[in-house]
């Protein structure tokens, strides 16, 4: 049975399917109810991508199921056990500065460009066509294969929670939403807000508005503040300080008069929130800059002082009291993804990825003394525990062996990452692909792209993974 050759035969159709999906802007938005009373819980764009994917799967001959537009699945084969493949169709906001329109799915120099090509539409399409290759070859798996379609992985995971409240969890499987050769662990994830109410400002230099970032799990690329003063000399001093920041520190800080106010903008470098060290956080630059100004509100000055002393450019949480690390997964990472000030209240939205041997409670215990000292409010938004599987477990060894067979790469080893995938949504799931070692990771960044050659290799890897994991003699136990 040569199912691998079927992947090459369907190459053009597979690329077309991905282009169709990428052309749909599936950023989660407010719920929509149609005239017929049907609810689209994650907005029209996500719904359109979901409908497109299920339609493609049906056209390929698979059974599909839609669970009230919160998620769904594509089934292949029968069996008392289920091998799950969990992925998602929603994407993070596109941002700016693309070489090609972010939803054009343009092809150039062997790459398909567009938001979602890597995260996670490309790998989901690869998994779908891996299933098709096996089906077309006449393969009858000893266990059911279920490709589970998530719709709000980049935000709150409500869709997967809703789905699993109504559908059984798979017995084991993988999510094609991270790195090869395999992930044997993921740090725990938590999102919280630090907030403080501020008294009304009057006289002197005042802050009218402050905003920055586009998503909690992205390093903020831009930040904007508007300040007000009756003194032209104050504005001149701020402009001089901005020039010094550009010259001496290399930060992209600019000022511009807006009516009687002064606008301050900062441009940083975006990166995935799990790897804040790879970016330049525009929020942190902005807070550093504003902390050098003398606002009429002492409380506002204290807030900026707090940020500069206990957060600043420290992406490992050491200054804030949560600088944990372990041998299995390395250091904790901390990313300030959003800031907002309006009508007397300032809020920071923070994403933390903590080591696999640490708990969420330990992180909160570490930061609370400092927050209490500065009278900061803490709002817990969400949390997902860590995932860990021994590198020598049968599951990890099987998947790594498949990767090695199709790439010849025997040097790369299983890793633990800070990113959070649907491995946290169900038991016995690990992340497997789709970024190859050494390749540039443009997830959550401008000019996201997938190599067509890698796209096809990924599909072959997933086809063999499905084949091996659905053999009668493959077993997975909790003890692994």
Summarize the structure.
The protein is α+β, with helices and mostly antiparallel strands and 480 residues long.
Structure write-up:
It contains 11 helices and 26 strands. The protein is of the alpha+beta class. It starts with a helix and ends in an 11-residue tail after the last helix. The model has no long low-confidence stretch (mean pLDDT 95).
Helix/strand/pairing category: alpha+beta
Beta percentage is 25-35%
Q: What strand line-up does the widest sheet have?
A: 15-16-14-13-19-20-12-21
Radius of gyration: 24 Å
State the helicity in percent bands.
Answer: 25-40%
Query: In one word, what is the shape?
Result: elongated
Count of helical regions: 11
Q: Could you describe the largest sheet, including whether it forms a barrel?
A: 8 strands, antiparallel
The count of strands amounts to 26
- Chain oligomer state: single chain
Low-confidence stretches: none
State the separation between the terminal residues, measured CA to CA: 31 Å
Mean pLDDT across the residues is 95
Q: Helices, strands, pairings?
A:
Blueprint: H1 4-9, H2 11-22, E1 32-33, E2 39-40, H3 44-59, E3 63-66, E4 72-76, E5 82-88, E6 107-108, E7 111-113, H4 121-136, E8 144-150, H5 158-164, E9 172-175, E10 178-179, E11 183-186, E12 188-197, E13 206-212, E14 222-228, H6 232-249, E15 252-258, E16 261-267, H7 282-290, H8 298-310, E17 325-326, E18 330-331, E19 333-342, E20 345-354, H9 360-373, E21 377-384, E22 387-388, H10 394-407, E23 415-417, E24 429-431, E25 434-435, E26 449-451, H11 452-469
Parallel strand pairs: 5-8, 5-9, 9-24, 10-25, 11-23
Antiparallel strand pairs: 1-2, 3-4, 4-8, 6-7, 7-26, 11-22, 12-20, 12-21, 13-14, 13-19, 14-16, 15-16, 17-18, 19-20
Helix pairs in contact: 2-3, 2-4, 4-11, 10-11
């Amino acid at each position: 049975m040569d199912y691998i050759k079927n992947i090459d035969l369907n190459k053009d159709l597979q690329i077309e399917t991905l282009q169709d999906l990428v052309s749909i802007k599936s950023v989660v938005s407010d719920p929509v109810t149609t005239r017929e009373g049907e609810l689209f819980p994650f907005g029209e764009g996500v719904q359109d991508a979901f409908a497109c994917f299920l339609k493609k799967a049906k056209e390929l001959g698979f059974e599909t199921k839609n669970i009230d537009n919160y998620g769904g699945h594509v089934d292949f084969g029968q069996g008392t056990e289920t091998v799950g493949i969990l992925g998602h169709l929603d994407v993070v906001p596109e941002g700016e500065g693309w070489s090609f329109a972010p939803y054009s799915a343009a092809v150039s120099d062997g790459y398909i460009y567009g938001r979602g090509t890597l995260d996670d539409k490309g790998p989901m399409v690869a998994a779908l066509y891996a299933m098709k290759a096996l089906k077309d070859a006449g393969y009858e798996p000893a266990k059911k294969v279920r490709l589970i379609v998530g719709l709000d992985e980049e935000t709150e995971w409500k869709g997967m929670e809703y789905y699993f409240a109504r559908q059984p969890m798979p017995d084991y499987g993988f999510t094609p939403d991270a790195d090869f050769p395999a992930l044997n662990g993921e740090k725990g994830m938590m999102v919280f807000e630090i907030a403080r109410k501020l008294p009304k400002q009057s006289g002197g230099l005042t802050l009218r508005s402050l905003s920055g970032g586009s998503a909690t799990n992205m390093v903020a690329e831009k930040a904007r503040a508007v300040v007000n003063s009756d003194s032209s000399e104050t504005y001149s001093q701020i402009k001089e300080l901005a020039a010094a920041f550009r010259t001496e520190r290399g930060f992209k800080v600019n000022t511009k008069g807006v009516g009687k106010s002064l606008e301050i903008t900062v441009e940083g470098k975006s990166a995935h929130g799990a790897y804040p060290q790879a970016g330049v956080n525009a929020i942190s630059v902005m807070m550093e800059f504003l902390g050098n100004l003398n606002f009429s509100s002492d409380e506002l000055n204290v807030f900026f002082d707090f940020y500069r002393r206990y957060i600043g450019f420290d992406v490992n949480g050491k200054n804030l009291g949560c600088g944990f690390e372990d041998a299995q997964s390395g250091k904790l990472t901390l990313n300030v993804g959003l800031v907002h000030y309006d009508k007397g209240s300032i809020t920071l939205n923070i994403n933390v990825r903590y080591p696999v041997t640490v708990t969420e409670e330990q992180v909160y215990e570490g930061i609370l003394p400092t927050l209490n000292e500065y009278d900061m409010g803490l709002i817990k938004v969400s949390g997902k525990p860590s995932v860990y599987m021994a590198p020598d477990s049968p599951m990890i060894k099987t998947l790594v062996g498949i990767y090695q067979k199709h790439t010849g790469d025997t040097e790369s080893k299983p890793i633990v990452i800070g990113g959070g995938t649907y491995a946290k949504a169900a038991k016995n799931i690990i992340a497997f692909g789709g970024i190859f070692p050494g390749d540039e990771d443009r997830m959550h960044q401008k000019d996201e792209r997938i190599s067509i050659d890698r796209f096809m290799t990924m599909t072959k890897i997933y086809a063999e993974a499905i084949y091996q994991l659905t053999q009668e003699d493959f077993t997975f136990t909790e003890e692994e």
